Automatic annotation (TrEMBL), chains A, B, C:
<keyword id="KW-0677">Repeat</keyword>
<dbReference type="Pfam" id="PF00132">
    <property type="entry name" value="Hexapep"/>
</dbReference>
<dbReference type="InterPro" id="IPR001451">
    <property type="entry name" value="Hexapep"/>
</dbReference>
<comment type="pathway">
    <text>Bacterial outer membrane biogenesis; LPS lipid A biosynthesis.</text>
</comment>
<protein>
    <recommendedName>
        <fullName>UDP-3-O-acylglucosamine N-acyltransferase</fullName>
        <ecNumber>2.3.1.191</ecNumber>
    </recommendedName>
</protein>
<dbReference type="GO" id="GO:0016020">
    <property type="term" value="C:membrane"/>
</dbReference>
<keyword id="KW-0444">Lipid biosynthesis</keyword>
<dbReference type="GO" id="GO:0103118">
    <property type="term" value="F:UDP-3-O-[(3R)-3-hydroxyacyl]-glucosamine N-acyltransferase activity"/>
</dbReference>
<dbReference type="Pfam" id="PF04613">
    <property type="entry name" value="LpxD"/>
</dbReference>
<comment type="similarity">
    <text>Belongs to the transferase hexapeptide repeat family. LpxD subfamily.</text>
</comment>
<dbReference type="InterPro" id="IPR020573">
    <property type="entry name" value="UDP_GlcNAc_AcTrfase_non-rep"/>
</dbReference>
<keyword id="KW-0808">Transferase</keyword>
<comment type="subunit">
    <text>Homotrimer.</text>
</comment>
<dbReference type="GO" id="GO:0009245">
    <property type="term" value="P:lipid A biosynthetic process"/>
</dbReference>
<keyword id="KW-0441">Lipid A biosynthesis</keyword>
<keyword id="KW-0443">Lipid metabolism</keyword>
<dbReference type="InterPro" id="IPR007691">
    <property type="entry name" value="LpxD"/>
</dbReference>
Amino acid sequence: MKFTVRQIAQLIGGEVEGDDSLEIDQFYKIEEGQKGGISFLANPKYEAFIYKTGSSAVIVADSFIAKDSINSSLIKVKDPYSSFSVLLSEYEKLNKKKKVGISALAFIDPTAELSENVYIGNFSQISENSKIGEGSVIYPQVFIDENVTIGKNCILYAGVKLFADTVIGDNCTIHGGAVIGCDGFGFAPQKDGTYKNVPQTGNVILGDNISIGSNSSIDRATIGSTIIKNGAKIDNLVQVGHNVTIGKNTVIASQTGIAGSTKIGDNCSVGGQVGFAGHLEVANGTKIGAQSGINTDVVKENLTLNGTPHMEMRKHQRSLVFFRKLPELDKRISDLEKKKDN
Amino acid sequence: MKFTVRQIAQLIGGEVEGDDSLEIDQFYKIEEGQKGGISFLANPKYEAFIYKTGSSAVIVADSFIAKDSINSSLIKVKDPYSSFSVLLSEYEKLNKKKKVGISALAFIDPTAELSENVYIGNFSQISENSKIGEGSVIYPQVFIDENVTIGKNCILYAGVKLFADTVIGDNCTIHGGAVIGCDGFGFAPQKDGTYKNVPQTGNVILGDNISIGSNSSIDRATIGSTIIKNGAKIDNLVQVGHNVTIGKNTVIASQTGIAGSTKIGDNCSVGGQVGFAGHLEVANGTKIGAQSGINTDVVKENLTLNGTPHMEMRKHQRSLVFFRKLPELDKRISDLEKKKDN
Amino acid sequence: MKFTVRQIAQLIGGEVEGDDSLEIDQFYKIEEGQKGGISFLANPKYEAFIYKTGSSAVIVADSFIAKDSINSSLIKVKDPYSSFSVLLSEYEKLNKKKKVGISALAFIDPTAELSENVYIGNFSQISENSKIGEGSVIYPQVFIDENVTIGKNCILYAGVKLFADTVIGDNCTIHGGAVIGCDGFGFAPQKDGTYKNVPQTGNVILGDNISIGSNSSIDRATIGSTIIKNGAKIDNLVQVGHNVTIGKNTVIASQTGIAGSTKIGDNCSVGGQVGFAGHLEVANGTKIGAQSGINTDVVKENLTLNGTPHMEMRKHQRSLVFFRKLPELDKRISDLEKKKDN
């Protein structure tokens, strides 16, 4: 399937600079571009590649000013990454066939309710009283426990496990191996040094348009619900403890861990390998650098934080500058001490 | 099923303050309490909620003194969290039906031995010479390799994988997606820069009353055994390397990693995202703060440690205070230098 | 099966000191050695055990000089760990029976191509147009999506998921629960604060002789490929983002995370729980200490780095020395300030 540069520009509302009749049938990263391909330039770090890419066309920002000659046709748009993403979506729509049908090798409990146009893959189990919404796709080897409700147009990839009473909204994507609704980590210490298991009787509730990464673990609440709100995007290998709340459109990168009962606000952005202590409240719009450790409430909105324990990013970076110079600071103090003594 | 406040107080050995005839049929977090519900107050951080909770009853500590008027009946006990946990357990006993029976869709090797009252779910496999103890529950999609032994009254949730020769004691709970007995990470460097696989011929041994979190990985020993002792509780996404030993009643929070051959003592408590270097010995009763890095032996018992590399908690916190003030320290040195020069 | 110390010495090209007629039929860790067993001593930390081990024989380095009397026969070799590993491999060859055959309980799509001598376990799925190379072993409950290609003599343990278009070379081992080819974490921010999913249309390509640890996640590329090169060894619970490249014979320990588009060179060695920011280039031969955070390019080869953000190991360790002394530095400054004032 081929499209001209002109057709693509129309699709994404861009303006062409150069030959708009070139034919495109492939996507390339700008540094690997070849004839017949289209690439994009969003991160300035990659600008050098636009002057030597083999791609026939490159999507760039309106504001882009070339510092050298470029062989490719340019399509100028407001937000190149977003426009490229629209293009990929169109491509996917044309190429990916929708999975539908229920495998004879799946186990569907007679009390389960399957809506129309669902797909249930081989060796998957849909247990008692669970409901799968219209158009949802359940890959092979998925486990859906009792009383689980899944909305419309969700995708659950192979190996996903949803334990009892989990509720999932519409248009959610759960990646392979994610475990949702397992017991929270609750143990009451006893006098003899052993721990007694605290039953986890709550559940997990996911809103709409949520993405959960592969091999992530989201624990059910002790009582009440662990809640992830509409539009939140959670990466791979993330730990979400019992009774946690994650706000709307909050994005959490890989390997972050959130201890029990912490509430993260809306529109937050959390880097990879961040740790949150339990029972915290983190305000809307907080941005947190990778590997930070958040151990007290974040009350003010829209702060940018970094470090363990967290500080405001700028202050943390100033302290880090001097951390690197610590041997030098010691030397300066020693020099002062010596002079003093003379 | 309803119980009066009086009946509940009797069950958990507490004393009622207020109306003991109120009826309870639901658990609530104190901040979400409603009529007919019971809550508990253990963490002082949540005290404010007791003065406005809608719950009909709240379990509190003997020592609790109200600073304001409270609408709920109080049940006073020694340890509110523990008592609430007893209540949840009773509730679960009444409500959770025990799974029993062997699915026709499971694969059971003819040489496998299943004791009485076991449950084996759909699409699970019990391989050659493996044994499942009385009353154990094997959810669907569990893989049990050859020569695995599982004790009595264990629960293995969906997607658990136990590789060859693993031994599990009684009353253990293994959460979804946990992998036990996979190869340790052992590679011998060769002259040409490649690595040669070192066969991992040992196994994993778990004692009794152990909990392993979802998506955790516990590697088999190179030779001998990786050992987890009675009563240890391990959270989600934890890495336990080959030939590690974890002591009795030691609790390890999510995303912690323990490198090969390290021995952690009894009654330790380890925060989330902690890292242990290999070949260490960590004394009994050690407490370790989240995100710490332990890179030398911990010889003395009952220390509280923090930071990377670890320091005693108090010393680490003092250093952190000055880390935050580093730009200021630099300024003070500069001021001294200037005066000096005059 | 028994061998004499002499036979073992011949097998690994070592020289015997002591009785070479003793019979060996078991491997032991040096600290747990018993009669009839063989151990090795590579890490000097364990030297004390050689003077009291019960093992009949111990493999030691040529350069080893005993400081006390030893009861065991010694086999002297260049590299004890490597020689011991050779021995374990021989043992495994004799004892492990090769799995072959295709389970009637697996789902094999009619368009899939299976080479000779493959093993496909129960409840595994091989989807459309996928190919399994000669001698490869697919454990039970493995999911292989469409258009996946697997080379010769690979082992995929239970619960592995390979998503569409993944390519795997020869002699690769993928441990239980690893997810390869799931979507990268790509979302384009919209004006209203929501995020739009960026389709991930690329794939994952693994070379030959690669090991991937249990419960690790390797994301497919947005466009192009996420690439892991020949001989790389990746531990458990590791996150590899979209469009990442990992070089030849690079070793990455558990729980490390690599953000999108970062390229790690050949022969690197990365400790556990390390984080890499996205879009970085890390030079060949870089060594990185556990829990480090790499947030800028590493241009020079063969550096040893540590800390967050990373510094050269020696410099980082000097700064850490003074971090521990920060309260003391403050005191010294205060003393100077006081004297000044007098």
